[in-house]
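hey so i finally got around to running the thing on that chain from the lab meeting. sorry it took forever, my laptop kept dying and i had to restart like 3 times. anyway pasting the input first so we r on the same page abt which one it is
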Amino acid sequence: MPDHKKYRATVIKGILGHDAVPRSVIARSMADLEKMLDRRFRELNERRNGLARAHAPFREKLLGELRNDPAWTASIRKLRDTHKSLKSRRVDVPKVSAKKERVFLGSIGGTRVPAYDYPWTWSATSGSPSVSASANVNNGQIRLTGSTDSNNGSSLSARGALGIFFSSPTECLSHFRFWSNPALSYDWWDICAFDSAHSDGFIGLYAAAYDWAGGQTNTPADQMISLWSDDSWWSGASDRGSNSAYPLSASFEVDANHYYALWVWCGIHDSAAGWGTFSGSGSGADLAVSVPSISWEVG
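ok and heres what got predicted. didnt touch it at all, straight out
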């Protein structure tokens, strides 16, 4: 009996004309993205710390009489305990129906299914939050989880992505589109009393173009679609949600002088002040994404 799965992969490889570029080459270019993300993360922390310093006199004024109220300190203890219990809450990884790898006619196109070519994760922290990021090319799952420190001010960012290789099967400049419909589940929260807390998350498509010497030339797609975003100073907010097939699509021009890495990616960011006796804040998020397929069409 012929190995039909191997045959389908060979057909798509034949259309592209090349094996996927090694992960080590793609990883070098993603290092530049990581440096940019690190810089953005530091800038966000500087902005957050500057706002906290500006708000400090107002905050101290508001807290004045409350420091002598036992009921107030008891409420802060309860909020701190809520923060600790929320840190361990996790969403289920969404289930997706199996897709078939295929080639379709008319315009030239194809659908890739796991195992994908490239995994990527990145994270950054200030203070001592907890954070984890994983991207599995074999099952198509991305998981990002984080929560701020219960005791001190902290912040975190995490991103994960799964990608495939593409090279244009035509010599001329051609219109190109790629898309995916990942399933996702998320659970985020922020709680606070006279201190700020923030949580946000996104999903999208990312594409990088390379010359055949391996140098990245441009980023034709850099999509970050907000799933949630909240800033709170008092009480806070939370939400859980899911989507069985989130529609993602991007288009640009491709040519035979370049090859491309096409990614589904997602991210979370959380920051909070930690908990003291009379005030505090905490935040966290759990995002699970399943990518059943990544499709492309050229021409």
